[in-house]
Amino acid sequence: MVHGFLGYWFIRKAMWASPSSIRSNAASIKKFYAFMHQAGKVTTEQLESLQDTIKEELPDWIETVKRYDDLDCDDPFGRGI
Prior knowledge:
This protein has 81 residues and is mainly alpha-helical. 72% of the residues lie in helices and 0% in strands.
């Protein structure tokens, strides 16, 4: 679900969305999951899955927000429209 939030919803709905805000939110979510893991609310597998997802997809999210801010780009989310 982090992909849907940082890679789509946040970019469209947060006027302050930028590469640095995407990075900052990703770091915050990772810290929150680490806390939840320590509290026993999130399994090791869930924590590692989230960390892997963020590590793998963060560059794409950053490129997407750059395209979204580019007025010349007609398809910032790469949906083939």
